[in-house]
Amino acid sequence: MKSVDRHLTDILATVQPLAPLEVDLERAHGTVLAEDVASPVALPPFDNSAMDGYAVRAADVAGAPVVLPVIEDVAAGDSELRAMGPGMVTRIMTGAPVPAGADAVVPVEWTDGGTVRVTVHRPAPAGNAIRRSGEDVHAGEIVLREGSVIGPAQLGILAGVGRRRVLVRPRPRVVVISTGAELAEPGTSLGHGQIWESNSFMLAAAVQEAGGEVFRAGAVTDDPQRFLSTLEAQLVRADAVITSGGVSMGAYEPVKEALAPLGKVVFEKVAMQPGMPQGFGVVGDDDVPIFTLPGNPVSSFVSFVLFVEPALRKMRGLPEGPPRTVRATTTAYLRSPAGKRSYLRAVLSGDTVAPVVGQGSHQLAALASANSLVVVPEEVTELPEGAEVEVIPL
Ligand code: AMP
Ligand code: MG
After folding, report:
1. How far is ligand 2, taken at its centre, from the CA of residue 206, in Å?
2. Which ligand ends up closest to the CA of 300?
3. CA triplet 357, 248, 299: central angle to 5 degrees?
4. Backbone angles phi and psi of 41, in degrees to 5
5. Ligand 1 centroid, distance to 296 Cα (angstroms)
6. Within 6 Å (CB) of ligand 1, which residues are found?
7. Is the full-model pTM beyond 0.90?
8. SS3 66
9. pLDDT of 30-88, one tens digit each?
């Protein structure tokens, strides 16, 4: 049997980062920056008020309380300002440019709020409540580096430096296809021998959380021809394909039957539990990577975490590697088959981890109650309560 590590290495050797492309800001969320972005101007671009109040000369309010004439109002966005002579003040709003001649802002709370004349109750030091030009960013300064994941704050600064379009590696477009003659769409009634199809929903959400864009092609029956025609129809919009089911040792294994003869997808046994039957390769003229995951829901999910997510990271241009792990102490005795690496569903809290009841690869409710996977190495068959273990947080 092939090792988990070897299987991931093979996958990462095939999968390549997606080519960068320029997108509008509206489409940039969740993508990965493929250029260094610099600000064309200083930010803030001009000295402006940090508060609602009065622009003053600090020297004029040093002897507060004082009464001074208000020469005009400036609001955020005003551009034509009168310079202030000695003994004058300008009523000013947050974000408005500081008029020439002023060197401090007195917050409205320190005054009587007058509009013709104002009584200033407290002195303000020079520079008070003024946001200086260039305080956040210098003109020409790089604000985001290539390889940054664009989240809300990163989108904010991209817009803040005036960018409308950015060069990014896009979210990988991933098609999810489930197979199985027994599968019924949730929301419909179940016939005898049927189960509701769950993998495509679970895998689609996992793709989105991993930064991909997903197309759920739904479920196809166990007919290899039907599977192939669905696959062909979906390939046009795919950077990767995930299938579930139809790769085991039984009869009616449509994914294996359809793809094995093409010679570019390898079906093999990986030394892991759950998730032993795995397939990976490429399909179509563009050699689109395809992950053929086992159908048991927990197997399918664990396979995604171990193999698909790292591949999606590489496609996005992020550093490659296996899932992140932490160390914790198990609160219960653990068992694992010899020769296979186990991924036991568990609840991690602080530095302890408790396996959940229901470790079968069909036990989806148990998976849904877990927040982590305890990794038990191939050669270890049992671990006592209190042993230190490696854990993949989910
Ligand atoms: P297979 O890998 O096709 O042999 O399926 C293994 C087990 O997983 C069977 O019990 C299937 O009914 C179940 N299964 C396969 N695909 C799905 C799916 N999309 N949703 C829920 N269960 C599934
Ligand atoms: Mg099946």
Report:
1. 21
2. 1
3. 30
4. -135, 170
5. 5
6. 178, 180, 182-183, 195, 197-200, 244-248, 294-297
7. yes
8. strand
9. 999 999 999 999 999 999 999 999 999 999 999 999 999 999 999 999 998 899 999 99
